[in-house]
Design brief:
The chain is mainly β. Helices cover 0% and strands 46% of the residues.
């Protein structure tokens, strides 16, 4: 069974940079599209970036466009989220998740279809 675990979270100042990693085990990550989600205290979980399983097409929430970059390395069973110019409103627990669909984007996120979630990694942006 596919399992995911995130790493790379931490505390940074506004304008700082973090690179999150999502490592898969138990099964190859190649057949899955992958998304990065985040949840701040008192708020609902939201999708921030997605990458498809076949073509590696990416999509981003408007709030992070131009600042975040999602990528994948199927040979390493890894997905990454490069986060540049971080803002205080980016503070949240970040999760990666696997979706079996070929077409996967911010607009088509369906939590019922997510096959696996990681436990999350905390990102704190503060001065």
């Amino acid at each position: 069974q596919l399992q995911l675990v995130e790493s790379g979270g931490g505390s940074v100042q506004p304008g700082g940079t973090l690179r999150l990693s999502c490592a898969a085990s138990g099964f190859t990550l190649a057949p899955y599209s992958v998304g990065w989600f985040r949840q701040a205290p008192g708020k609902e979980r939201e999708g921030v970036a997605t990458i498809t399983r076949r073509d590696g097409k990416t999509d981003y929430a408007d709030s992070v466009k131009g600042r975040f970059t999602i990528s994948r390395d199927n040979a390493k069973n890894m997905v990454y989220l490069q986060m540049d110019n971080l803002k205080t409103e980016d503070s949240a627990v970040y999760y990666c998740a696997a979706d079996p669909r070929s077409l996967f984007s911010i607009a088509t996120i369906d939590f019922k279809l997510i096959e696996a979630w990681g436990p999350g990694t905390l990102v704190t942006v503060s001065s």
